[in-house]
Design brief:
The complex is a heterodimer of chains A (168) and B (129). Helices cover 21% and strands 40% of the residues of chain A. With 168 residues, chain A is α+β, with helices and mostly antiparallel strands. Chain A has a single domain, classed as STM4215-like. In chain A, the strands form two sheets. In chain A, strands 3, 4, 5, 6, 7, 8, 9 and 10 form an eight-stranded mixed sheet that branches. In chain A, helix 1 packs across helix 2. The relative contact order of chain A is 0.21. With 129 residues, chain B is α+β, with helices and mostly antiparallel strands. In chain B, strands 1-2-3-6-5-4 form a six-stranded antiparallel β-barrel. Chain B starts with a helix and ends with a strand.
Chain lengths: 168, 129
């Protein structure tokens, strides 16, 4: 399951960087595309604005076939206070822009990619190509909500993959 | 300005004599550029502990407060640490280390007098047991 989660994040990261190179965040002094996986970052109560924050929630396995098919739910939360130059009055427009970006990167064909194993990158090695794919369904937008001076939304997408033999 | 410095010195003296706790602010080192491993949770960043000097610590049930001298905070922010302000420093810090326990910083409020800050009050959350 972890390889599917990592692969899905990397796809989103690459597609976002290509679609809107200006959508960036600075985390621990490093500028990177504006997408992160919350469980991979330091625990904090501060929600980073103007970026897509991935959370993995439910998961289920279908074991009828030769390989178990795992379906994982990914919640993508994002929020914005708008721009200071417009006194935040453009926060609705900024949220709509983020809606559009998320829809574009997830609807971009193909809605699948080859699963990769990134475990070796911790030792400076390259990611390893696996035998099966990771694919995902349609994006479901949640209701926009106000959070102090920010407007936020959580979108949900189901990510599927086959669990290969020996895979963690 | 002189009055602001006076308030700062009084706060520091009070913390030194009445507080007496020693606390460290735990900061994470900058992320490794171009490393997918850190973004994927495969590698952890380096950490460094910075002394917060004499502090006063109060803990009651689930809430904990830490009073820190503003002069110490100014030194950390102004020492080329890369933090724009004390707010950013506390928001991005991993936590505060007290007696070997890492507390998460949930809020930070500055107390000021005569257009200068003399003390910071940090709200802390103890690790879940």
């Amino acid at each position: 399951m972890q390889n599917a989660k990592d692969t899905f994040y990397e796809v989103l990261r690459e597609r976002l960087a290509a679609l809107n190179p200006d959508r960036t965040i600075v985390l621990r002094d490093l500028m990177r595309p504006g997408v992160l996986v919350e469980e991979n970052e330091l625990a904090t109560d501060v929600a980073t604005p103007d970026c897509f924050r991935l959370q993995w929630t439910k998961s289920a396995a279908d074991v009828k076939g030769d390989l178990p098919m795992v379906t994982m739910q990914c919640e993508i939360a994002y929020e914005t206070a708008g721009t200071a130059v417009n006194a935040g009055m453009d926060r609705g427009r900024m949220l709509a822009a983020m809606d559009g970006e998320l829809l574009a990167i997830l609807n971009e064909a193909p809605q699948k990619t080859t699963k990769m194993n990134y475990a070796g990158t911790a030792l400076g090695k390259a990611a390893v190509v696996m035998k099966t794919n990771v694919w995902w369904g349609g994006l479901v937008f949640g209701q926009a909500e106000m959070k102090n001076d920010r407007v936020m939304r959580t979108a949900t997408v189901e990510v599927m993959s086959y669990q290969e033999a020996g895979e963690q | 300005m002189a009055n602001a410095e006076g308030a700062e010195r009084i706060a520091e003296t009070a913390l030194r004599t009445l507080g007496g706790w020693k606390a460290m602010l735990r900061l994470s080192a900058p992320a490794a550029s171009g490393s997918a491993a850190e973004e994927l949770g495969l590698a952890t960043p380096q950490f460094q502990d910075v002394s917060l000097g004499p502090v006063a610590f109060r803990k009651a049930e689930s809430t904990a407060k830490l009073l820190v001298s503003a002069s110490v905070v100014k030194k950390i922010v102004g020492a080329g640490s890369g933090f724009d302000s004390a707010d950013v420093l506390f928001e991005t810090a991993v936590g505060v280390v007290l007696d070997g326990v890492v507390y998460e910083i949930t809020d930070s409020v500055a107390s000021g007098a005569n257009s200068g800050e003399y003390c910071w009050c940090l709200s802390l959350k103890a690790p879940a047991r």
